[in-house]
User: Which sequence fits this backbone?
Protein backbone atom coordinates (compact mmCIF):
# COMPACT_ATOMS: atom_id res chain seq x y z
CA UNK A 1 0.00 0.00 0.00
CA UNK A 2 1.36 3.47 -0.81
CA UNK A 3 2.86 5.22 2.20
CA UNK A 4 3.27 8.93 2.94
CA UNK A 5 6.01 9.64 0.33
CA UNK A 6 4.00 8.01 -2.46
CA UNK A 7 0.83 9.92 -1.55
CA UNK A 8 2.75 13.20 -1.23
CA UNK A 9 4.34 12.57 -4.64
CA UNK A 10 0.86 12.09 -6.14
CA UNK A 11 -0.39 15.26 -4.42
CA UNK A 12 2.45 17.28 -5.90
CA UNK A 13 1.71 15.85 -9.34
CA UNK A 14 -1.99 16.70 -9.10
CA UNK A 15 -1.63 20.13 -7.50
CA UNK A 16 -0.65 22.10 -10.67
CA UNK A 17 -3.64 20.82 -12.68
CA UNK A 18 -6.29 20.65 -9.94
CA UNK A 19 -5.67 23.50 -7.52
CA UNK A 20 -7.55 26.60 -8.65
CA UNK A 21 -9.33 24.72 -11.45
CA UNK A 22 -13.02 23.87 -11.71
CA UNK A 23 -14.43 20.39 -12.27
CA UNK A 24 -15.96 20.92 -15.72
CA UNK A 25 -17.18 17.31 -15.97
CA UNK A 26 -17.10 14.35 -13.61
CA UNK A 27 -17.66 10.75 -14.67
CA UNK A 28 -18.06 7.88 -12.20
CA UNK A 29 -17.93 4.66 -14.20
CA UNK A 30 -19.12 2.61 -11.27
CA UNK A 31 -20.98 3.32 -8.06
CA UNK A 32 -18.38 1.98 -5.67
CA UNK A 33 -14.71 1.57 -4.95
CA UNK A 34 -13.80 0.13 -1.56
CA UNK A 35 -17.07 1.61 -0.36
CA UNK A 36 -20.02 3.07 -2.31
CA UNK A 37 -19.33 6.52 -3.71
CA UNK A 38 -21.30 9.33 -1.99
CA UNK A 39 -24.86 9.85 -3.17
CA UNK A 40 -24.98 12.06 -6.30
CA UNK A 41 -21.16 12.09 -6.27
CA UNK A 42 -20.61 13.41 -9.81
CA UNK A 43 -23.36 16.04 -9.46
CA UNK A 44 -21.99 17.32 -6.13
CA UNK A 45 -18.42 17.64 -7.40
CA UNK A 46 -19.12 18.94 -10.91
CA UNK A 47 -18.95 22.73 -11.14
CA UNK A 48 -16.98 23.19 -7.91
CA UNK A 49 -13.48 24.64 -7.77
CA UNK A 50 -10.52 23.05 -5.98
CA UNK A 51 -9.44 25.76 -3.55
CA UNK A 52 -6.60 23.68 -2.14
CA UNK A 53 -5.13 20.21 -2.46
CA UNK A 54 -3.63 18.87 0.75
CA UNK A 55 -2.68 15.60 2.38
CA UNK A 56 -3.34 14.08 5.80
CA UNK A 57 -1.34 10.91 6.42
CA UNK A 58 -2.15 8.70 3.40
CA UNK A 59 -5.26 10.67 2.37
CA UNK A 60 -5.51 13.34 -0.33
CA UNK A 61 -7.80 16.24 0.59
CA UNK A 62 -9.32 18.43 -2.13
CA UNK A 63 -10.92 21.49 -0.53
CA UNK A 64 -13.93 22.37 -2.71
CA UNK A 65 -15.69 25.72 -3.18
CA UNK A 66 -18.96 24.02 -2.18
CA UNK A 67 -17.77 23.76 1.41
CA UNK A 68 -17.09 20.04 1.12
CA UNK A 69 -13.76 18.24 1.10
CA UNK A 70 -13.11 15.38 -1.30
CA UNK A 71 -11.19 12.80 0.74
CA UNK A 72 -9.34 10.33 -1.51
CA UNK A 73 -7.31 7.22 -0.69
CA UNK A 74 -5.23 5.23 -3.17
CA UNK A 75 -5.78 1.87 -1.48
CA UNK A 76 -3.60 -1.00 -2.65
CA UNK A 77 -3.44 -0.30 -6.37
CA UNK A 78 -4.98 3.11 -7.04
CA UNK A 79 -3.22 5.67 -9.21
CA UNK A 80 -4.00 8.97 -10.91
CA UNK A 81 -3.13 9.70 -14.55
CA UNK A 82 -3.00 13.26 -15.84
CA UNK A 83 -3.71 13.94 -19.52
CA UNK A 84 -3.19 17.46 -20.79
CA UNK A 85 -4.42 18.25 -24.28
CA UNK A 86 -3.75 15.32 -26.60
CA UNK A 87 -0.50 14.30 -24.94
CA UNK A 88 -0.06 12.16 -21.85
CA UNK A 89 3.07 12.76 -19.79
CA UNK A 90 5.90 10.50 -20.95
CA UNK A 91 6.61 7.59 -18.58
CA UNK A 92 10.12 7.12 -17.24
CA UNK A 93 12.58 4.32 -17.74
CA UNK A 94 11.10 2.19 -14.95
CA UNK A 95 7.58 2.40 -16.39
CA UNK A 96 5.51 -0.78 -16.39
CA UNK A 97 2.56 -0.92 -18.78
CA UNK A 98 -0.67 -0.03 -16.99
CA UNK A 99 -4.01 -1.57 -17.91
CA UNK A 100 -5.44 -0.45 -21.30
CA UNK A 101 -7.19 2.90 -21.09
CA UNK A 102 -10.72 2.49 -19.89
CA UNK A 103 -10.08 -0.72 -17.96
CA UNK A 104 -10.29 0.04 -14.23
CA UNK A 105 -10.57 3.79 -14.94
CA UNK A 106 -13.32 4.28 -12.38
CA UNK A 107 -13.47 8.07 -11.92
CA UNK A 108 -12.59 10.75 -14.49
CA UNK A 109 -12.30 14.46 -13.68
CA UNK A 110 -12.26 16.90 -16.61
CA UNK A 111 -10.85 20.17 -15.33
CA UNK A 112 -11.62 23.67 -16.61
CA UNK A 113 -7.98 24.12 -17.63
CA UNK A 114 -8.22 21.23 -20.10
CA UNK A 115 -6.52 18.61 -17.94
CA UNK A 116 -8.15 15.19 -17.55
CA UNK A 117 -7.43 13.44 -14.25
CA UNK A 118 -8.28 9.73 -14.19
CA UNK A 119 -8.37 7.48 -11.16
CA UNK A 120 -7.44 3.89 -12.04
CA UNK A 121 -7.77 1.14 -9.43
CA UNK A 122 -7.68 -2.54 -10.50
CA UNK A 123 -8.25 -3.93 -7.00
CA UNK A 124 -10.76 -1.26 -5.92
CA UNK A 125 -9.36 -0.78 -2.41
CA UNK A 126 -9.19 2.96 -2.97
CA UNK A 127 -11.93 5.32 -1.83
CA UNK A 128 -13.50 8.74 -2.39
CA UNK A 129 -15.67 10.46 0.17
CA UNK A 130 -17.25 13.91 0.47
CA UNK A 131 -17.11 15.47 3.92
CA UNK A 132 -18.33 18.89 5.05
CA UNK A 133 -15.33 21.07 5.78
CA UNK A 134 -16.79 22.00 9.16
CA UNK A 135 -16.98 18.31 10.10
CA UNK A 136 -13.55 17.24 8.84
CA UNK A 137 -12.01 17.09 12.33
CA UNK A 138 -14.64 14.53 13.32
CA UNK A 139 -14.36 12.43 10.17
CA UNK A 140 -13.81 8.80 11.36
CA UNK A 141 -11.10 8.20 8.76
CA UNK A 142 -9.03 11.11 10.06
CA UNK A 143 -9.84 12.01 13.66
CA UNK A 144 -7.75 9.29 15.34
CA UNK A 145 -4.62 9.93 13.28
CA UNK A 146 -1.44 10.93 15.06
CA UNK A 147 0.87 13.83 14.13
CA UNK A 148 2.32 14.31 10.67
CA UNK A 149 5.94 13.10 10.77
CA UNK A 150 7.11 15.99 8.58
CA UNK A 151 5.24 18.60 10.59
CA UNK A 152 6.95 21.00 12.98
CA UNK A 153 5.00 19.60 15.94
CA UNK A 154 6.46 16.12 15.53
CA UNK A 155 9.59 15.92 17.63
CA UNK A 156 11.41 13.60 20.01
CA UNK A 157 9.37 14.73 23.01
CA UNK A 158 6.09 14.01 21.25
CA UNK A 159 7.24 10.56 20.10
CA UNK A 160 8.66 9.66 23.50
CA UNK A 161 5.41 10.65 25.22
CA UNK A 162 3.34 8.59 22.77
CA UNK A 163 5.53 5.53 23.35
CA UNK A 164 6.28 5.92 27.06
CA UNK A 165 3.72 3.41 28.29
CA UNK A 166 3.61 1.13 25.27
CA UNK A 167 4.27 -2.52 26.00
CA UNK A 168 4.96 -3.32 22.39
CA UNK A 169 7.84 -3.40 19.94
CA UNK A 170 9.22 -0.22 18.43
CA UNK A 171 8.26 -1.47 14.97
CA UNK A 172 4.64 -2.01 16.00
CA UNK A 173 4.45 1.39 17.70
CA UNK A 174 5.66 3.23 14.60
CA UNK A 175 3.13 1.42 12.42
CA UNK A 176 0.34 2.55 14.75
CA UNK A 177 -1.27 5.46 12.89
CA UNK A 178 -2.36 6.93 16.23
CA UNK A 179 1.30 7.35 17.23
CA UNK A 180 2.49 8.89 13.97
CA UNK A 181 0.51 9.21 10.76
CA UNK A 182 1.48 7.98 7.31
CA UNK A 183 4.32 5.59 8.11
CA UNK A 184 4.18 2.09 6.71
CA UNK A 185 6.37 -1.00 6.67
CA UNK A 186 8.99 0.22 4.19
CA UNK A 187 9.88 3.53 5.81
CA UNK A 188 9.70 2.21 9.35
CA UNK A 189 12.33 -0.42 8.44
CA UNK A 190 14.51 2.19 6.76
CA UNK A 191 14.18 4.76 9.56
CA UNK A 192 15.02 2.19 12.23
CA UNK A 193 18.13 1.21 10.29
CA UNK A 194 19.26 4.82 9.94
CA UNK A 195 18.82 5.37 13.67
CA UNK A 196 20.51 2.02 14.47
CA UNK A 197 17.56 0.88 16.58
CA UNK A 198 16.27 -2.68 16.63
CA UNK A 199 12.66 -3.15 15.49
CA UNK A 200 12.34 -5.60 18.41
CA UNK A 201 13.28 -2.98 21.02
CA UNK A 202 10.47 -2.08 23.43
CA UNK A 203 8.83 1.18 22.36
CA UNK A 204 8.83 2.59 25.89
CA UNK A 205 12.65 2.80 25.83
CA UNK A 206 12.32 5.97 23.73
CA UNK A 207 11.55 7.76 27.00
CA UNK A 208 13.67 8.03 30.13
CA UNK A 209 12.33 7.12 33.55
CA UNK A 210 11.21 10.73 33.99
CA UNK A 211 9.36 10.65 30.67
CA UNK A 212 11.84 12.87 28.86
CA UNK A 213 12.91 11.86 25.35
CA UNK A 214 15.92 9.54 25.30
CA UNK A 215 18.70 10.19 22.77
CA UNK A 216 17.20 7.25 20.87
CA UNK A 217 14.01 9.24 20.28
CA UNK A 218 15.99 12.19 18.92
CA UNK A 219 17.90 9.97 16.49
CA UNK A 220 14.74 8.18 15.40
CA UNK A 221 12.77 11.37 14.69
CA UNK A 222 15.67 12.74 12.65
CA UNK A 223 15.86 9.45 10.72
CA UNK A 224 12.10 9.37 10.04
CA UNK A 225 12.13 12.91 8.65
CA UNK A 226 15.25 12.26 6.57
CA UNK A 227 14.07 9.01 5.00
CA UNK A 228 10.65 10.46 4.15
CA UNK A 229 12.18 13.55 2.54
CA UNK A 230 14.63 11.42 0.56
CA UNK A 231 11.80 9.19 -0.64
CA UNK A 232 9.65 12.15 -1.70
CA UNK A 233 12.55 13.59 -3.71
CA UNK A 234 12.86 10.21 -5.44
CA UNK A 235 9.15 10.08 -6.28
CA UNK A 236 8.41 7.39 -3.71
CA UNK A 237 9.01 3.65 -3.96
CA UNK A 238 7.50 1.50 -6.71
CA UNK A 239 7.28 -2.14 -5.66
CA UNK A 240 4.03 -3.14 -7.35
CA UNK A 241 1.48 -0.49 -8.16
CA UNK A 242 2.68 2.98 -7.21
CA UNK A 243 3.37 5.38 -10.02
CA UNK A 244 3.46 9.12 -10.31
CA UNK A 245 0.76 11.09 -12.13
CA UNK A 246 2.98 11.11 -15.22
CA UNK A 247 2.97 7.31 -15.34
CA UNK A 248 6.58 7.21 -14.15
CA UNK A 249 7.49 4.93 -11.28
CA UNK A 250 9.25 6.11 -8.14
CA UNK A 251 12.98 5.51 -7.70
CA UNK A 252 13.52 5.22 -3.96
CA UNK A 253 13.38 1.41 -4.00
CA UNK A 254 16.87 1.56 -5.55
CA UNK A 255 18.09 3.26 -2.36
CA UNK A 256 16.73 0.80 0.20
CA UNK A 257 19.32 0.02 2.84
CA UNK A 258 17.58 -2.98 4.41
CA UNK A 259 14.02 -3.33 3.11
CA UNK A 260 13.78 -6.44 0.90
CA UNK A 261 17.57 -6.93 1.25
CA UNK A 262 17.50 -10.18 3.22
CA UNK A 263 20.83 -12.03 3.12
CA UNK A 264 22.79 -9.05 1.82
CA UNK A 265 25.71 -7.44 3.62
CA UNK A 266 24.72 -4.63 5.96
CA UNK A 267 25.43 -1.28 4.25
CA UNK A 268 26.36 0.33 7.57
CA UNK A 269 29.93 1.64 7.82
CA UNK A 270 32.32 -0.90 9.36
CA UNK A 271 29.47 -3.34 10.03
CA UNK A 272 30.07 -6.96 9.09
CA UNK A 273 26.50 -8.05 9.74
CA UNK A 274 23.92 -9.36 7.30
CA UNK A 275 20.40 -8.08 6.72
CA UNK A 276 17.87 -10.39 8.32
CA UNK A 277 14.13 -10.81 7.78
CA UNK A 278 11.73 -11.60 10.63
CA UNK A 279 7.94 -11.43 10.89
CA UNK A 280 6.33 -9.03 13.36
CA UNK A 281 2.56 -8.74 13.66
CA UNK A 282 2.18 -10.48 10.33
CA UNK A 283 4.52 -8.07 8.51
CA UNK A 284 8.03 -8.64 7.20
CA UNK A 285 10.72 -6.71 9.05
CA UNK A 286 14.17 -6.20 7.56
CA UNK A 287 17.06 -5.10 9.77
CA UNK A 288 20.68 -5.74 10.73
CA UNK A 289 20.85 -7.50 14.12
CA UNK A 290 24.55 -6.60 14.40
CA UNK A 291 24.32 -2.82 14.37
CA UNK A 292 20.67 -2.21 15.25
CA UNK A 293 20.30 -2.51 19.03
Assistant:
Amino acid sequence: MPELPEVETVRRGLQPVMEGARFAKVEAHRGDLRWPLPKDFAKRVEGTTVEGLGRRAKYLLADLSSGEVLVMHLGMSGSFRVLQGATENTPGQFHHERAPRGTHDHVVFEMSNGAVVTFNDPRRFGSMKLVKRSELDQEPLLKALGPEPLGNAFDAAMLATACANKNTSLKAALLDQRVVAGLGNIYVCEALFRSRLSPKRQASTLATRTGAPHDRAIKLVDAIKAVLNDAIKAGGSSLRDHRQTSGELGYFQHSFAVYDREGEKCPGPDCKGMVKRIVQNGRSTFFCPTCQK
Summary: The CA atoms of residues 96 and 216 lie 40 Å apart. Confidence is low (pLDDT under 50) at residues 86-100, 238-244. The longest helix spans residues 215-233.
